[in-house]
Design goal:
By secondary structure, this protein is mainly alpha-helical. The protein contains six helices and two strands, in the order H-E-H-H-H-H-E-H.
């Protein structure tokens, strides 16, 4: 009796598994075809480049202060040396805090990315959800998110359908 019951449960789960519909999309591909994303990425790159130049300029100031200290330390008294070292360390700490405020977790670059990229991603996710519901898919996976998908048949790739639903036409690559 137990064996029969166990066999029934296994068959029930097997049937449920085969009844599920899967598809995948390539979010990197979709994002690469969206002009809004390309423009947002350019803005992020420009802001990042400007902040990086600012960090480098500030670090150069710290380096110059250190070089000047090394050249003049033989003429300084011990209290003057300690004061100058504190000044240099304080300036270096300032630069690191500035760098963290721009590039660290929760920094301006992260906030700007959220402001520019998140609405685009949300638009795609909404479209994927609508597509999945309309076509009866149980799962839609993201192929671009790393090595979580070992094999994917091209017939399951629904990236072009999502682009089309977003109003973006693309030319097939290499075809």
């Amino acid at each position: 009796m137990k064996k029969t019951m166990m066999m029934f449960v296994v068959m029930l789960f097997a049937t449920a598994t085969f009844a599920q519909k899967f598809a995948y999309v390539d979010l990197e591909y979709i994002l690469g075809k969206m002009p809004q994303y390309t423009e947002a990425q350019k803005q992020l790159d420009k802001a990042s480049e400007n902040w990086q130049k600012d960090v480098e300029a500030r670090m150069k100031t710290v380096d110059d202060m250190y070089k000047q200290f090394q050249a003049e330390q033989v003429l300084m008294t011990e209290p003057m040396k300690q004061q100058k070292i504190k000044e240099i360390e304080g300036k270096e700490k300032e630069v690191k805090e500035f760098q963290k405020s721009k590039f660290g977790p929760g920094g301006e670059l992260f906030k700007k990315r959220q402001e520019l990229i998140k609405p685009i991603q949300d638009k795609i996710y909404d479209e994927v959800q609508k597509y999945a519901i309309a076509k009866g898919y149980d799962f839609i996976l993201d192929r671009s998110s790393g090595p979580t998908m070992l094999y994917a048949s091209d017939r399951l790739n629904k990236s072009e359908d999502i682009l089309s639903a977003l109003g973006i036409t693309s030319k097939p690559e290499g075809k």
